[in-house]
Q: What sequence folds into this?
């Protein structure tokens, strides 16, 4: 393939210039990091699984009218996306207490929350992505009050969609993180779901056994991450074709 201009490289993905203005190619790496990259490993096949899973969730959201940056998948590791101006916030929605909320507030993991709780974290690796309030966001100009209202509404629609999709395959959506970007149409701006939605950025527990099917498997050394992500992909019917065995062996003369 011709050399492409690299726009940005993050911990798990690379962004390249796209074929047309306003587009980018998002490449999914096999790298897994946790605790602000203190823990790092390369897990063969993770990028392929996350590319497929993010395609599945983002195209489902597009189909129900929740706008995302996703245009189409290009190959095993790459997808074509709309270029957006990323809002420097991680938006976390929680349905069940776990992770940092359990630690911060002393609530036992697995405790159902009375309603979905939306939290914001400022995207800054050097600071370890600190939690911020709407007051900080508005005072520092990261987003307006209108943006914030729209971000909460968007996140809750994503939560309802993902919760339903996962529950249908026996998985509880405990919490997830999304990133949101701005797309400009002349003077008109709209917010879209960006980055990725995958088991890297969600907590997914098997409804019957409570088994972790997400990046906590890596963070907490609970076993094979690819087995966990493959299980999610298998249940959703989105395993890459080279790992399904749908076709019969053919005799080669
Ligand atoms: P937390 O409980 O560690 O705050 O994580 C909440 C959710 O956000 C969980 O589904 C994992 C996801 N997450 C990310 O996607 N990236 C991150 O850097 C962190 C800390 C969490």
A:
């Amino acid at each position: 393939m011709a050399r492409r201009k690299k726009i940005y490289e993050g911990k798990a993905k690379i962004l390249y210039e796209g074929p047309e203005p306003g587009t980018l190619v998002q490449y999914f790496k096999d790298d897994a990091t946790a605790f602000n990259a203190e823990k790092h490993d390369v897990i063969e096949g993770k990028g392929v699984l996350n590319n497929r899973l993010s395609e599945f969730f983002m195209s489902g959201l597009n189909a129900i009218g929740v706008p995302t940056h996703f245009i189409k998948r290009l190959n095993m590791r790459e997808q074509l996306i709309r270029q957006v101006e990323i809002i420097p916030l991680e938006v976390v929605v929680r349905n069940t207490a776990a992770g940092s909320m359990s630690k911060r507030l002393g609530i036992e993991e697995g405790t159902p929350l009375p309603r979905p709780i939306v939290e914001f974290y400022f995207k800054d690796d050097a600071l370890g992505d600190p939690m911020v309030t709407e007051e900080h966001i508005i005072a520092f100009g990261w987003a307006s009050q209108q943006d914030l209202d729209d971000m909460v509404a968007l996140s809750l629609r994503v939560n309802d969609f993902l919760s339903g999709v996962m529950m249908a395959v026996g998985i509880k959506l405990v919490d997830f993180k999304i990133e949101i970007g701005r797309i400009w149409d002349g003077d008109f701006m709209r917010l879209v779901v960006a980055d990725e939605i995958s088991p890297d950025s969600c907590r997914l527990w098997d409804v019957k056994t409570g088994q972790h099917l997400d990046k906590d498997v890596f963070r907490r050394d609970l076993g094979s991450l690819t087995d966990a992500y493959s299980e999610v992909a298998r249940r959703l019917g989105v395993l890459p074709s080279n790992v399904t065995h749908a076709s019969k062996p053919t005799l080669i003369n």
